[in-house]
Amino acid sequence: MVKRYPVSTGAEDVNQRTTNTYDYDGSNSSTRNLWGRLAAVTVPNSVTEHYSYTSAGLLTSKASDFGGGIYMVPTVDYSYDTEGRMTQMVYPQYGHLVPPSSYAMYSQRLTLNYSYDSLGQLQGMTAGSGPGTQLVSSATYNAAGQLLSLNRPNSVTVDPATELPSGSAGLSAETFQYNGRNQLTRQTFLYSDIEYRFSATANDGRLTQKKNWNSTEEENYTYDSLGRVATAYTTGPEWGLSWVYDGFGNRLQQNVTKGTAPSTVQTVNAATNRLNGAGFGYDSNGNMTDWTTPSGSVTASYDIDNRMTQIVTPSLTETYKYGPGNLRVRKSQGGTTVYTVYGQGGAVLGTYTMCTAAGTSFLCDARLRVYFGGRLILNGWTGVKPDRLGSPDFVHGRVYPYGEVSGSVTEDQDETFTTYKRDVYTGLDYAQNRYYASGWGRFATADPYRASGGPASPQSWNRYAYVEGDPVNFGDPAGTNKAAPDSPDVINGCIKSATTWDELACRQNGGQQESGGGGWSFDPMTGMPAALQAAYDSYSAMVTEAFIDRAAKGFKITSTIIFDDDTTSEHSHEGQFDQVKTNLLSLFQAGLDVAGLVPGIGEVADGLNGAIYLAQGDWGNAALSAASMIPIGGQLAGGTRIAKRFVSHESALIDLAKQFKRRGLNSQEVDIMRDWAKEYGVYFRGPEAHPNRNFTIPHVHIGPIDHIPVRP
């Protein structure tokens, strides 16, 4: 249970309490598991999510109970092959109104089936049982694993009796071309043909031109010495813009240089980087509470986690509620509530409204999304044509570099800019952890992800600026850190595939997935890296935390050897190395068996790395490869490798601390984290408790991360 207090000396806000349940939650929405896996997360007055797993730790179902007595709790089900690849995903059931006052639940649910080629690459997708309706076929890839072509629909005919695909979908070819640096240079699909051009001499990876061969509009871009977009203009007379920034990277002016385009002039408080002027207001946490739109003034309210919970305009009031992972699950306005159901990787699977008939409440008016390899291809059964940053083909007008549009945004096409969802009445874009205001080119709240700021990029210390002033070449899918283009992670909000959410890999690697599929995937429920979560879950009974202690501390502490649970003996330094070598070699030989039990953790790769380290005499990395190859009681061995892998040891340590805040540390992990903090010069305090502040749980402080619970 996580309790939240508005002030350190005040009472708990029970409406912000989050309850985590493990093993079994006593409901019919999850199955009992024996490894301490998360069974449910309850967010008061918002949603309770229930989870079930395979014996290897793969999620088999996720049920989202929104309360209110909804008939048929929306549930997403998953199936896998023996290699741990998803072979089927089944969307929730929903219903529709039957005039004049009854209802019917659709007995069928959307079922997507996935097929793979001999290399394990996603190759096709069908909807329905049997041969079904072919939605994607003949996907091809280059040697770097980048998508070259596929056949997919521009729209899908659905059966009005079931609202599911029927018959042929009418597939058309979509193609992608890349240059020698693996940058996307052209993508074509039906009436969309976009070319991306880069400088032959600048060597900075920035786009210089974007040509829409369908509309013939050609955009040109220039940049200032700090890499911020300075001008954008069409070769023809359509439009042109230039920008002025201050020393902190705040956008002060957007000036029209030709044609028709939106312009803005704004001033910023140099001490806080907040907008000045009449109509703007902020709370003490730096959240924008007041601003003005063409329709009048807007007032916003926030919860204790600085998430926007309500906006009030002259004509309406709209409220928002959030679930695990800061994902917005409810939007209510004027008696209408829209619910959003997410897949296990954080991708939006569908939005629904609440209908009531014959005394029964149920979800209806479904607007489903379909992805292929994490790339959105269908929204409401209409084809989507995202550009390299994820912005769809906006049919109501032109989209300018910072996200303003020339036409009006409607509820049925509110995906206008990168991966964001635009709220029609406020003009703000929902960006998962924050809200983005395209009219000002900045976020409405400060960046909650502290590690996204660093001395390597001084502009990153501005907690409001959008992608450090370069919206042409970067996106920010999670609303916390800019991410480079030409990556599936960017195109889909750090969603690499239908089953994986590589948020940390996106942040640390500028949006690029590590070569060979490396990087960390966060478990969408617990916030822990998914591979290590599965490792911890599946093998915590087998592997002793004492080994982690030894691995993390360079074998300074004697401990039990892996699998030798009945042997507890003291070893010399050389003896420990010999024992580790023996166990590592045996684990490497068993790597294929382990890989079959825990798909997706990269056991074989870690085993190979371990063998190489051994051959080189690198005992430290060999031990860590062993610890990562065999699932372990926590994240720490993998965390050590992250600290070695990334440039900033401090940032890696703080990232781990953020994740531990969600699930807590045990006493041994506290000792290891204290040692790391001392080695890397990171502030560490605790364990301690504050009975006089109603915070009796023992906890530690690591860097900027406060009150990390210490478990017994």
Automatic annotation (TrEMBL):
- What ranges does the record list as Polar residues composition bias? 16-26
Q: Which InterPro entries match?
A: Rhs_assc_core, RHS_repeat
One of its Pfam families is: RHS_repeat
The UniProt annotation puts the region (Disordered) at 1-26
Superkingdom of origin: Bacteria
Q: Which NCBIfam families match?
A: Rhs_assc_core
Protein name, please?
Answer: RHS repeat-associated core domain-containing protein
Organism, scientific name: Paludibaculum fermentans
